[in-house]
Design brief:
By secondary structure, this protein is of the alpha/beta class. Helices cover 29% and strands 25% of the residues. The chain has eleven helices and 21 strands. Strands 3, 4, 5, 6, 7, 8, 9, 10, 11, 12, 13, 14 and 15 form a 13-stranded mixed beta sheet that branches. A four-stranded mixed beta sheet has the order 20-19-18-21. The chain has a two-stranded antiparallel sheet with strand order 1-2. β6, α9 and β7 form a beta-alpha-beta unit. The longest helix has 19 residues. The termini are far apart. Zinc ion binds next to loops. Adenosine-5'-diphosphate binds next to β7 and β13.
Amino acid sequence: MDIQYWNREVETLDREGLARLQLKGLKETVDRALQTEFYKRRLQKTGIRSADDIRSLDDLKKIPYTTKNDLREAYPRGLLSVDTDRVVRLHTSSGTTGTPTVIYHTTEDLANWTELCARGIVATGSSNRDVFQNMMGYGLFTGGLGLHYGAETVGMLVIPSSSGNTARQLRLMKDFQTTVVHVTPSYMLHIQSRIEPEGYKREDLNLKKAYLGAEAYSESTRRKIEELMGIDAYNSYGMSEMNGPGVAFECVFKDSMHIWEDSYIVEMYDAARQRELGEDEEGELVLTTLRRTATPLLRYRSGDLTVLNGAPCRCGRTHRRIARIKGRTDDMLIINGVNVYPSQIESILMKIPEVGTNYQICIEKDGSLDRLTVKTEIYSKMFTGDVQVLEELKRRIREQMKAAILINPAVELHEPGGLPVYEGKAKRVFDTRPKD
Ligand code: ADP
Ligand code: ZN
């Protein structure tokens, strides 16, 4: 396989070289952090008064974790480390789990972010010959503008279509022969389901690749998208607190995402047991920025669950990989005492060929018990009027759920288009149980 790099030197730097870059970056970051109101206070107790107090990467462990709540409390300016005249842009998070957080960028920050996005794009084998349609929302959400500049820098022809308006997305894809899209997995599934109803055939499109991110999804969803569309789908991870997209990207081998360790220090944390984890153990991803100037973050607890993989990759990149994100730590559902992540339910559904491109997970209280209802669209050819066929499918879905997650759900089947569509991050879980 032909392996391309955007920044070969850094992407293939040996681990000692990376550690040297990290130590330098950490010292600079601590100095910058001490310019912020938040870290000035936070670092007081640690005895770290300047970069000189950071002698090795281990000194990072003296610094307490930073949480999303800290960012919310420091809103709007408590984490700003430079004069406002140096700041050129701000972004906020989507606010999926509460009040949004703000991150400021200098020109230098934007250039670094752009570089990380360019590395990811090139790692998937894309180049300036590609036509890139960016279906992530443009605006405060980082999904749009983030990858946009990376793609332009690589020299791709960029179509900033933003999210939504499926008919227009398809027309643009056909008219400009789009080869790569950047999109949430849920919206990709929806786009696929609209190709024929909008009057197109797959052959009208020239799509080769999709970059899927911004929400948790299972490997079976990736496969389903790849098979239905006849494309390669690459996992792309990021969050506004760490810039946005471009933090970690799959390479051509599509086997977990390289996380750029010259720009972030990666740690893993087990929140339940309050202990640090090593490689190959599932836990919460914790990141420290190394190159960010306007909003440095030290040991930021992402809330995302993954596994760090230090095995060498065939692409030659030395930056370690993180596994597909299982979900956020607070996504876990407890249904009649059984712990389950929505991505596990999704994984089962998407393996069943009759299941269509949209689903919902609903949980309600039924007396003293919890009741799980899985609502899923199925392909219209299944609605033949033969009730037995549908009953058999429901039974099969129930059985597979029972076998995999030990919960026996009620199953509701819907026609294509029967469930609400989300053009950005999808809302899949509807939990109406009273909170205690
Ligand atoms: P919010 O946290 O409010 O949704 P962001 O827009 O910054 O704000 O979204 C970042 C979050 O999106 C990540 O923390 C993660 O939970 C999720 N995410 C992003 N990319 C992926 C991905 N490839 N797989 C799973 N989850 C992802
Ligand atoms: Zn690789």
